[in-house]
Design brief:
Blueprint (H helix, E strand, L loop, with lengths): L2 E2 L5 H16 L5 H8 L3 H13 L3 E5 L9 E5 L1 H30 L29 H11 L4 E3 L2 H11 L8 E2 L2 H10 L14 E3 L1 H4 L7 E5 L5 E6 L2 E3 L3 H9 L7 H8 L4 E9 L15 H11 L4 E4 L7 H14 L2 E4 L13 H11 L8 E3 L11 H13 L4 E4 L20 H13 L2 E4 L3 E4 L4 E4 L11 E2 L3 H9 L11 H10 L8 E6 L6 H15 L4 E5 H7 L8 H20 L3 E5 L5 H12 L3 E7 L3 H7 L4 H6 L21 E3 L6 H14 L6
């Protein structure tokens, strides 16, 4: 299915470069003089001008000079200026290659000269405006009407985050979602097709059905989840990527325990579309609007304050005292002002929601000197790609006007892989960033692992403590912090600020007061519904929280009556159950789910939905298929054996046995009350109910 539009040939790109250069040198020259300077005909000049206007490299205005025969004036746009730099480097690189080949032919050896270095960012001044992809307000109103008649793609939350940073310049120099050539270059060697450093594939993944409705060269409208048109895109490329290759090269392994690899294989569409975009309006954010800044807004803010050196601190977690000490030291080491730049887009499943985190950040901002510190929110969809992500974060912060960037130990690491090992080495991200920082134009400040030295009542870098054997070193891990919060235990002031702890406790009350979901899975006839009913009665007897049973048959009747039993429909049914369960959990209730749920990827998706708000307890009812068939009161297994029921779990369709459920129960020769009691004991052991 691979195909794409023919790329502009080098001769035409040379002419575009010469046109831009000539308009830059002599903006008031007549068309005849411009054509003569470039060495082309007037007809060819007009074709080039139309092409450059269409690509938004130049804009047309009315000529005000004395030459009445010259009706129009042409001016280079900011996008055109950036393109001129790129084309110049490309032109020089090609001429160098031609010279080197000629030198080798005449002398039998290479010239020995070094080729030019690609410039990731043509604008070296970190406070100058950078190109955005938005059209003017007047053009946007017209384009919005025209876009209403185009085929539309409804963006996923991750695609919306990506589009916003494409449009506002956060992903500069990208001009849209990656083409196939750019994608291949990024996956294989972290570079776009023209050699520009860029480590992360920014792709528009769509379904096969949607891709088949699109012709190459066609414009489509990009809408948010509420149907608002944010941009249009000219589809120049359409292809089916090798996702296993992408996983191995970008994330280091084709391992579904990595959240981005799981997204790649089980959530993202099978087909990628690439092409330039035209921004109409930015996504609407109703929360923390005063804290959200585009790259150019931050650059203007830095200019206004006279800041020249700015160090950015990336975080997706609340700030504690160790982070404060770290950022103080980083700013001092870099002799720079501090930008606290937390991610509020999409982070790792299970992370604290950004509403809580931002309230925590605001609670400790007064601990920082206001004259040298500011905070802005970044609507980024993280990939947790470790070393590549660190380079990506650096480029994004460079676009936001920063000169330095703090890179932490295991920066953007996703945790453990399927073998139980860390995906990346603790300093892999720092090593890769260090290799590219000169080209990127932003310096790394090493993250220091800070620990509390009780004897001196202060935080110090762990690797700089020379008297470790003679002092008491204290530290609380993230796991220990979550345990203390869930069990209502004390969190000492040396570790965190009281205001931060207060905010965290609002969102994370003791586990015995939180909502949670118990998710039973197993074959038809395994006893799921019976145990679930018994558990519901026992929990209602205890009281304290509302309990809701979402049994498979009940949901089928009341929530999914129109669905069949294809894999797609069964997945949709389970996702609906998961959504309802997550809402119940979010609002402090107990959801008990008892579907078959045969597919591991769907159960994982439901787990991620629920764990945003509370605990997810998977219970595998491990009754054998033979016993289920023996119990078969409805005669379903008999019909499945006869081929009268298609895609029947355990007979003609697979069941993915849970690998690491919170609990596995056997029902053969065990009464229902005992099975339900096992679940209760597990919930008590997890702190979800009080003994």
């Amino acid at each position: 299915m691979t195909s794409h539009l023919t790329k502009t040939n080098s001769a035409e790109e040379d002419q575009i470069f010469r046109l831009l250069r000539q308009l830059d040198l002599a903006p008031e020259a007549s068309q005849r003089a411009t054509a003569a300077a470039i060495g082309i005909s007037l007809g060819r000049l007009n074709a080039l001008l139309r092409s450059a206007v269409g690509r938004r490299l130049i804009q047309i205005g009315e000529r005000t000079g004395p030459d009445k025969r010259q009706r129009f004036a042409y001016a280079i746009t900011a996008q055109g200026a950036a393109e001129m730099v790129r084309l110049r480097d490309q032109f020089l690189a090609r001429k160098f290659a031609e010279y080197d080949a000629l030198h080798a032919e005449l002398t039998g050896s290479a010239s020995g000269l070094s080729p030019i270095k690609h410039r990731t960012h043509p604008m070296q001044n970190n406070l100058s405006p950078i190109p955005e992809l938005y059209v003017s307000y007047e053009s946007a109103q017209k384009l919005k009407v025209e876009a209403g008649n185009l085929i539309s793609h409804d963006l996923s939350p991750r695609q919306t985050c990506d589009l916003e940073l494409l449009m506002n310049g956060g992903f500069n120099p990208l001009k849209g979602f990656l083409t196939e050539d750019d994608y291949n270059g990024v996956v294989e060697n972290m570079r776009l097709a023209d050699g520009t450093l860029w480590p992360m594939p920014i792709t528009l993944d769509v379904s096969e059905d949607f891709a088949q409705t699109i012709e190459l060269g066609q414009d489509i409208a990009l809408r948010d989840q509420e149907g608002v048109i944010l941009a249009t895109m000219t589809v120049t490329d359409r292809w089916e990527p090798n996702k296993s290759r992408e996983a191995e090269k970008v994330f280091g392994a084709d391992d579904d325990t990595h959240p981005a690899v799981n997204y790649l294989h089980n959530v993202a569409g099978k087909v990628y579309l690439g092409g330039p975009i035209v921004g109409i309006q930015q996504p609407i954010h109703y929360d923390f609007r005063g804290r959200r800044d585009t790259p150019n807004e931050l650059r203007a803010y830095f200019r206004k304050l006279g800041w020249r050196r700015i160090v950015a601190f990336q975080t997706r977690n609340p700030l504690h005292r160790a982070h404060q000490e770290l950022t103080f030291r980083a700013a001092k080491e870099a002799q720079a002002n501090l930008l606290i730049h937390p991610v509020v887009g999409m982070t790792k499943p299970g992370d604290i929601d950004h509403f809580t985190r931002v309230r925590c950040y605001e609670a400790v901002l007064d601990q920082y000197p206001g004259a040298t510190t500011t905070m802005s929110l970044l609507n980024l969809a993280m990939r947790m790609a470790g070393p590549r992500e660190a380079v990506w974060h650096g480029l994004i912060r460079k676009n936001h006007g920063c000169t330095h960037f703090i890179v932490g130990r295991d920066h953007a690491g996703p945790g453990k892989n399927a073998a139980g090992d860390d995906f990346y080495g603790p300093y892999d991200a720092q090593d890769l960033f260090r290799v590219h920082q000169e080209e990127m134009g932003i310096e790394m400040v090493d993250f220091k692992h800070m620990v509390y030295v009780q004897d001196r009542a202060q935080y110090e870098p762990a690797d700089e403590i020379t008297d470790k054997d003679d002092v008491t070193i204290l530290n609380i891990s993230g796991t220990e912090l979550r345990r203390r919060l869930s069990e209502g235990l004390e969190i000492p002031e040396w570790f965190s600020f009281p205001a931060v702890v207060e905010e965290l406790r609002k969102t994370k009350p003791p586990r015995a007061e939180q909502g949670f979901t118990v998710f039973f899975t197993g074959f038809s006839g395994s006893g799921k519904s019976t145990i679930a009913n018994a558990l519901m009665v026992k929990l209602m007897e205890m009281g304290g929280r509302p309990v809701t049973l979402l049994d498979g048959d009940i949901v089928r009747k009341n929530l999914s009556s129109e669905l069949g039993f294809s894999k797609e429909h069964r997945d949709l049914n389970i996702r609906r159950i998961g959504y309802v369960a997550s809402e119940i959990t979010k609002n402090g209730g107990i959801a008990i789910c008892a579907p078959i749920a045969p597919y591991a990827t769907t159960r994982r998706a439901v787990r991620e939905d629920v764990e945003q708000f509370g605990a997810f307890v998977e219970v595998h009812v491990a009754t054998s298929i033979e016993e289920c068939e023996r119990r078969d009161r409805k005669g379903l297994y008999k019909l499945a054996r006869e081929g009268k029921i298609k895609e029947f779990t355990g007979i003609s369709d697979p069941y993915d046995v849970p690998q690491n459920p919170e609990l596995s129960v056997e029902t053969e020769n065990v009464d229902v009350d005992n099975c339900a009691h096992q679940v209760l004991l597990k919930l008590e052991n997890m702190g979800l109910i009080r003994g």
